[in-house]
Here is the input.
Amino acid sequence: MLDVNVIRADPDAIRTMLVDRNKPTDVLDRFLEADAEWRMLTQSSNELRKVRNAESLRIPKLPAGAEKDGVIASMREIGDRIKGNEERMSVLDGIREDCVLNIPNIPHASVPVGRDSGDNVVVCEWGERREFGFAPKEHPEIAEDLDIIDFDRAVKVAGSGFYCLKGDGARLERALISYFLDSHHDRGYTEVFPPVIVNKEALIGTGQYPNLKDDMYHLERDDLFLNPTAEVPVTNLFRDEILEKEALPIKYTAYLPSFRREAGRHADTRGIIRVHEFNKVEMVRFVLPETSWAALEELRNDAESLIRGLGLPYRVLLLCTGDMSFSCAKCYDLELYAPGKDAWLEASSCSNFTDFQARRARIKYRPEPHMRSEFIHTLNGSGLALPRTMVAVLENYQNRDGSVTVPEVLRPYMKGQEVIASRR
RNA sequence: GCCGAGGUAGCCAAGCCCGGUAUGGCGGUGGUCUCGAAAACCACUGGUCCCUGACCUCGGGAGUUCGAAUCUCUCCCUCGGCGCCA
Here is the structure.
């Protein structure tokens, strides 16, 4: 959520931003119109209230009689006018609220202007693509041959778009999660394990609601949602709090399943690249405003170090204005190379949300004791998303005989196992 | 799910029965005093705005009233007890 004062001060800048983001601008016009009328009515109501407050103090002092009755009658009329104002204002307020919740964050100056993912900028590429000496298989075949992912039976349990890890597949998943969490721990992150289910307030806080509401699982009876990313429960741990300045920065990491309906998506459904439920380890930072840009680079480095540790080739994209998600001011995507599919797979997004989420979730700090509180800045990054990391590991580490070598860094988590081989 | 107690400013409380427009303490900041500090004392310490001032704010919403933290209804949340339960 943007500061309404920023919108009022320079509506043209907001309009340009919406155009850069490839978004309609009518939301801005509706806001400005409703806001102008709202402000007019606010002033009018304030003046009426001023009269009422003054007269209400006089009333008990007046002797019973015609004058008192007259004042009471005119106060009754003023009360009606205030009520009339307020009815209109609550309509306008609803419009204002709706608009402001639907205006995305302002991109940082360093973000390239572009229309869609085709305009993202490759910042760097790391690692050597391996020479196989045979035709590398795609992950569904590898997994099928090793019997480490069961797609068909998972469909019985939950339907298409779900999968069941099995045997060394399940153990590899657990090893990856542990490796990620331990790495973050060593870099000063505190591990948390928040609720998987979140309420609407939390989703508004981080910006998934309302604009992504159709892509989330909704538990209607309790009006709760399955979290689409751990960013939601972790960031909202501090909703409605004023944090001690000394406590910042706060660095949290969490392993948590994430859920996405992926409504209307049908392409590319094979395998585990796009599924309804997936595991992810997330990093979330709560920082002082002046440190957030440096923190974004650190966060990205934290995520990259995991990939390097696994020895997977990857590249870093700087997302353009048209491809960035709603809440972020700047975002890097980390993409792993999958040789079987010969494709880049997004395994991490690292974003600085500046004060956008903090304003929605009301997370503040006090710059000086008893000075007025200010919004902090929030950031988050995946470190990393499990299924796509799994795909990259399987495809990059596959061997001619169909087995998969376990990356060295994961072996301590798999009781020293070096190879995943078929047990059939 | 049932019963009970609660939700007041950064924190803790009072005010509620009996309606008159936010009371105290803690913490904090500044000042007086001091070589300096402590103590003591004084002032300030929720938000918004078109800032000499005004308005708003007592969990949210609605109602009654000239006027609601206070009365009524409703919803939410927290804590405790009981029930159920992996």
